[in-house]
Amino acid sequence: MALARGEKDASTFIEDYVENISSLPHEIRRHFELMRDLDKEGAKVISDLEESERRVLADMRKTRRVSENVVESALSEISSKRRKAQQCVDEKVQIAEQACADCDIHIDRLDTELAKFEDFLRTSGEFTSASAAPGDQVAAKNKEDEWILARVQDYSIQTGTYVLVDEDDADASFEVPEALTVLLDGDRLSKGEEVFAVYPDTTSFYEGVVTSVPRRSAALHAAPGSAAHMALTCTVQFNDDVDETGTTPDRVVPVRYVFRRPEAALDVRFTGLV
Q1: How many Cα atoms are found within 13 Å in the side-chain-facing hemisphere of 122?
Q2: pLDDT of 23-63, one tens digit each?
Q3: This prediction's pTM
Q4: How many CA atoms lie within 13 A of 34 on its CB side?
Q5: pLDDT per residue over 174-186, tens digit each?
Q6: How far is CA 33 from CA 29, 46, 99, 103, 214, in A?
Q7: CA distance 145 to 68
Q8: 67: burial class by Cβ within 10 Å (0-12, 13-18, 19+)?
Q9: Is the pLDDT of residue 141 over 80?
């Protein structure tokens, strides 16, 4: 279907943005070259300043009586060099701030273009959301910085946040960014993998190591969301789960309640509640 005048196709959005940022590497490089030049100039000024200070102090030690004019001249020279050194530092800070501002401008523009691109895809019917649907179970990082089992109540595409309900407390709803949630789609696991898994008889995820996985034939024939998939289990040895005999037991956990370590979310903190 031909595009109406003024409309864009998907490639046009990408091409326009790439063209907009094409000058950014050169701008950033120019900023860093200026800062490097200021570093060299500043280092020379500071070296001259230190030499002047040493010379003045040495002259004063040798000569008991120094005329007022000589002292004023020496102090004036030192003050001038100190101002020059400070000027180099100030200019370097200004250039660094300008480099950050240039990057921020392009990041803001990227956010705007991505929103436009998403609207375009949604309007054209090409948009596919990878988010969980209301009623789906997810793993979420709560305000105590713990991973818990929760159920999706709502999802905002505009803000990229979920409204979740704690599976252990139906009255406790909270809002978290998508980066702090993991879709529980039953990833295919391997023995020895470091994972987060629901500890038996709880709704909390703890770190552990997979010690056994479902038979390959069973996993291949279990479609996500099917009864067969829901029944798949593995065994996990949880960290710090030593029993009275001093051994770490294998705990049976449904595969759907196990997920790989989400490295991108480990350092992200919970930001708020509904």
Answers
A1: 9
A2: 777 888 888 888 888 888 888 888 888 888 888 777 777 76
A3: 0.49
A4: 18
A5: 999 888 999 887 7
A6: 6, 20, 12, 16, 57
A7: 67
A8: exposed
A9: yes
Token reading at 145: 């910085």
The size of the chain, in residues, is 274
Question: DSSP 3-state assignment of 255?
Answer: helix
Is pLDDT of 272 > 50? no
Q: Which regions of the chain does DSSP assign to beta strands (E)?
A: 137-141, 147-156, 161-166, 173-177, 181-183, 194-198, 205-212, 233-238, 251-254, 258-260
Residues 220, 201, 242: CA angle, nearest 5 degrees: 95
Question: CA Rg, the chain, in Å?
Answer: 31
pLDDT at 5 over 50: no
Q: State both tokens at 74.
A: 């020496």
